[in-house]
Amino acid sequence: MSDNIVPLFGDPHHDTQLLLPWYACGRLDEADKMRVEEHLETCEECQVELRLERRLAAEVAALPGAAIAEAPAAAPSEGRARTPLWRAAAPWTGWAAAAALAIVILLPSSPPPAPTYHTLSAAPPAGNLVVIFRPEITEQTMRGILRASDAHLVGGPNEADAYVLQAPPSRLKAVLANLRARHGVVLAEPVGSP
After folding, report:
1. What's the predicted TM-score (pTM) here?
2. In Å, how far are 146, 149, 191 from 143, measured between CA atoms?
3. Sheet of 162-166, strands arranged across
4. Rounded CA separation 191/97 (Å)
5. Are 191 and 164 in contact (CB under 8 A)?
6. String of DSSP letters for 5-19
7. Which end of the chain is more exposed for a tag (fewer CB within 10 A), N or C?
8. Which run of H or E residues covers position 130?
9. Cα–Cα dist 139/159, whole Å
10. How far apart are the C-alpha atoms of 13 and 3, rounded to whole Å?
11. Helices and strands (H and E) in the chain: how many
């Protein structure tokens, strides 16, 4: 058996990417700094990554409370074990994760609506108008027509692309006249007897 130690990360590109956050913050020892700079001379991908790291560092430094946040003390080197990626993240990410968890825990959760049982022969939704809109109508235009007509959508579209609407019974004739006058409406009829 050999006494040789097999490095887990022998790829200079990968090693440089792991060291870039510390390089951007000026926290590398001289040997690692020289290795990163040597790789940066020829690797455009790492140059782009370094610009992003520096921009991120500047944005984090501008955050409120950034002065009290601690930066990583030292970068990993060949002689030491590598720092897990979650530890290499910016210091504020822990606070952000804690705040997100607190929001999720503290927000009141509403119970899900009670399930309703419907058979295949269940009656269609109650409404007093049937409307067919033009096929090319947009949802926004359809909503505008419904708002202007004082009618509410209660069902549809069915097989004939018809929608069931509910309008105040006292205004049914006026709502029908309003709907029939709209360019986006092909048909507007009362359900049952008018």
Report:
1. 0.37
2. 5, 10, 21
3. 152-155, 162-166, 129-133, 185-190
4. 54
5. yes
6. PPPS---HHHHHHHH
7. N
8. strand 129-133
9. 18
10. 26
11. 7, 4
- Which residue type sits at 161? D
Residue 177: per-residue pLDDT: 92
Dist CA 186 CA 65 (whole Å): 61
Q: Using DSSP, state whether 154 is helix, strand or coil.
A: strand
Give the span between the Cα atoms of 194 and 191, in whole angstroms: 7
- Distance between CA atoms of residues 173 and 14, nearest Å: 73
User: pLDDT digit of tens for each residue in the chain (194 aa)?
Assistant: 445 544 545 677 778 888 888 888 888 888 888 888 998 899 888 888 888 888 877 777 777 665 544 545 555 555 444 555 545 556 666 666 666 666 666 666 666 666 666 555 555 557 888 999 998 989 899 989 988 888 888 888 888 888 889 998 898 899 999 999 998 899 999 987 55
Question: How far is the C-alpha of 12 from the C-alpha of 87, rounded, in Å?
Answer: 21
- Angle at CA of residue 60, ends 79 and 106, nearest 5°: 105
User: Which residues are registered as beta bridge partners of 166?
Assistant: 152
Residue type, 25: C
What pLDDT, on a 0 to 100 scale, did the predictor assign at position 29? Answer: 86
Burial status of residue 84 (CB atoms within 10 A of its CB: 0-12, 13-18, 19 or more): exposed
pLDDT at 20: 83
